[in-house]
Design goal:
- The protein is of the alpha/beta class and 489 residues long.
- It has 20 helices and 17 strands.
- It folds into 4 domains: 100 residues, NAD(P)-binding Rossmann-like Domain (Rossmann fold), CATH 3.40.50.720; 59 residues; 114 residues, Tetrapyrrole methylase, N-terminal domain (Cobalt-precorrin-4 Transmethylase, domain 1), CATH 3.40.1010.10; 156 residues, Tetrapyrrole methylase, C-terminal domain (Methyltransferase, Cobalt-precorrin-4 Transmethylase, Domain 2, 2-Layer Sandwich), CATH 3.30.950.
- The strands form 4 sheets. Strands 3-2-1-4-5 form a 5-stranded parallel β-sheet, with helices on both faces. The chain has a 5-stranded parallel β-sheet with strand order 10-9-11-8-12, with helices on both faces.
- Strand 6 and strand 7 form a beta hairpin.
- Helix 5 packs antiparallel against helix 6 and helix 6 packs parallel to helix 7.
- The relative contact order is 0.06.
- The chain binds S-adenosyl-L-homocysteine.
Length: 489
């Protein structure tokens, strides 16, 4: 069941709380903060509730619950330990179309009380629809830590200036930029330092200053390999500020879901064969949107400077005097290695690592195969899986041992990740046997022998049967590599 979240304005509105124990007391406290007129119905009250009743902050009714009390209330909270009473209150509320919360009983409740982060007037509420209240609580604690106490003061300052900000920046893009300046700049900082007058003065100055130039800009950002958790905070912020996002096909839906809701998303995926024309079309789009004053995020899978043609796009922007910045991303080699348990370098087995692309004919013909075939180095090969045969043949031709281990990682870091293991000699055979598809990254080198034993994410590696691994753990790293290698082959 999906809930519809609302924030209720209860000031001077009657609310009935049935129950007078500590749970009821907590609910009453929150209701009083919202200035509700609270009546507590219970034979006995906690000392605190009694005090509130004496002080006239709440009304107390000790007699048994009566149906007609529901006539004048907006909301009811049932917080007794008696399930029958709670159910009765819930049913009567239902008949009268009054929202009832039965504490700790999602099924009986017609409204839920969320976990709240209170930065009044800013309120953040979290609900798991009663399914995982502990998760809501844990998330609340995390957000509490992330969100500074001064946010309430910032919200109040924004509220005071709001009419003038609106008048000053009629266009929503410029207005948003101004608010972002308040949030990210000296005003928020001064509030964090409890310097309220200085903050107000700084905000006034910002409002009086010349409006920022309307020119657009481009952020060239890496989206990482797919798992949204691998996005950098900087990229996340850029996505939150974007007016337009031009993204590659490889950028995952999970990453795009983190972007600002009303940002325009344009997929500019390039498929093999159509490279140059679509690259020109991408340039044209970048120019068009930046010149229209928009903040453009050019989002690429992995890292924009690793086989991403990011450099070409920046040269183009420079030539057209469009300002840009670059945010790195976790490139497929680094992510796939981590998610497949293959250390790219290893003291005993690989002192260097090369990122290689074997995507098209050009790269195949210009690669230094003799250098790539040398031992004790790791090759991280970005490629279409149909290039595997050429790769296998050329490396063998140039002397790389047929026994060199590999790990082929498909959809690295994503829920459908698969890892196929083997050795250079059976690379094509294994890839075909397991129908490896794109996107896939090939890690070839002595270190790939570790994949079966260090695998920790997703399904177990295919093509690798490792026996008696726990016993290996106690042995020196070199021995483990040898033993695992033998088990794999
Ligand atoms: N700029 C990107 C690479 C673009 S080239 C980066 O830094 O990662 C596209 C190639 O990257 C794919 O053919 C594949 O070899 C590799 N790749 C990208 N994402 C991948 C993933 N999640 N799993 C495996 N390989 C991936």
């Amino acid at each position: 069941m999906k809930l519809y979240p609302i924030f209720a304005s209860l000031s001077q509105r009657a609310v009935l709380v049935v129950g007078g124990g500590v749970v009821a007391e907590r609910k009453v406290a929150a209701l009083l903060e919202a200035q509700a007129q609270v009546t507590v119905n219970a034979p006995t009250l906690t000392p605190r509730l009694r005090r509130w009743a004496r002080q006239g902050r709440i009304a107390h009714r000790a007699d048994p619950f009566r149906e007609n009390w529901l006539e004048r209330v907006w909301l009811v909270v049932a917080a007794t330990s008696d399930r029958e009473i709670n159910a009765l209150v819930a049913n009567l509320g239902e008949l009268r179309r009054i929202f009832v919360n039965v504490v700790d009983d999602a099924a009986l409740s017609t409204f839920h009380v969320p976990a709240v982060i209170d930065r009044a007037p800013l309120t953040i509420a979290i609900s798991s629809g009663g399914e995982a209240p502990m998760l809501s609580r844990l998330l609340r604690e995390r957000l509490e830590a992330l969100l500074d106490d001064s946010l309430g003061a910032l919200a109040r300052l924004m509220a005071r200036l709001r009419p003038r900000i609106r008048a000053r920046f009629p266009a929503s893009t410029a207005r948003r930029a101004f608010y972002e300046g308040l949030l990210a700049g000296p005003v928020a900082q001064l509030l964090r330092q409890q310097r309220h007058d200085d903050a107000q003065a700084a905000a006034e100055r910002a409002l009086a200053a010349a409006p920022r130039s309307a020119g657009g800009s481009v952020v060239l950002a890496g989206a990482g390999p797919g798992d949204p958790g691998l996005l950098t905070l900087r990229a996340l912020r850029a996505l939150n500020e974007a007016d337009v996002i031009l993204h590659d096909r490889l950028v995952s839906a999970g990453v795009l879901a983190l972007a600002r809701r009303d940002a325009e998303r344009i997929e500019v995926g390039k498929r093999a064969g159509g490279h140059s024309t679509s690259q020109e079309a991408i340039h044209a789009l970048l120019l068009e949107h930046a010149r229209a004053g928009r903040r453009v995020v050019r989002l690429k899978g992995g890292d924009p400077f690793v086989f991403g043609r990011g450099g070409e796009e920046l040269e183009f922007l420079r030539a057209h005097a469009i300002p840009f910045e670059v945010i790195p991303g976790i490139t497929a080699a680094v992510a796939c290695a981590a998610f497949a348990g293959v250390p790219l370098t290893h003291r005993d087995r690989a002192q260097s690592v090369r990122f290689v692309t074997a995507h098209c004919r050009d790269s195949r013909d210009t690669l230094d195969w003799a250098a790539l075939a040398q031992e004790r180095q790791t090759l991280a090969i970005y490629m279409g899986v149909n290039e595997l045969a050429t790769l296998q043949a050329r490396l063998l031709e140039h002397g790389r041992a047929a026994s060199t281990p590999f790990a082929l990682i498909e959809n690295g870091s994503l829920p459908n990740q698969r890892v196929v293991c083997g050795v250079l000699g059976n690379l094509v055979e294994r890839a075909v046997a397991h129908a490896a598809g794109s996107p896939a990254l090939l890690i070839l080198g002595e270190v790939a022998a570790l994949a079966p034993s260090l695998a920790w994410f997703g399904a177990a590696p295919l093509g690798a049967t490792v026996h008696a691994l726990p016993a290996l753990a106690a042995r020196p790293a070199g021995d483990v590599l040898d033993a695992v290698h033998q088990a794999v082959c």
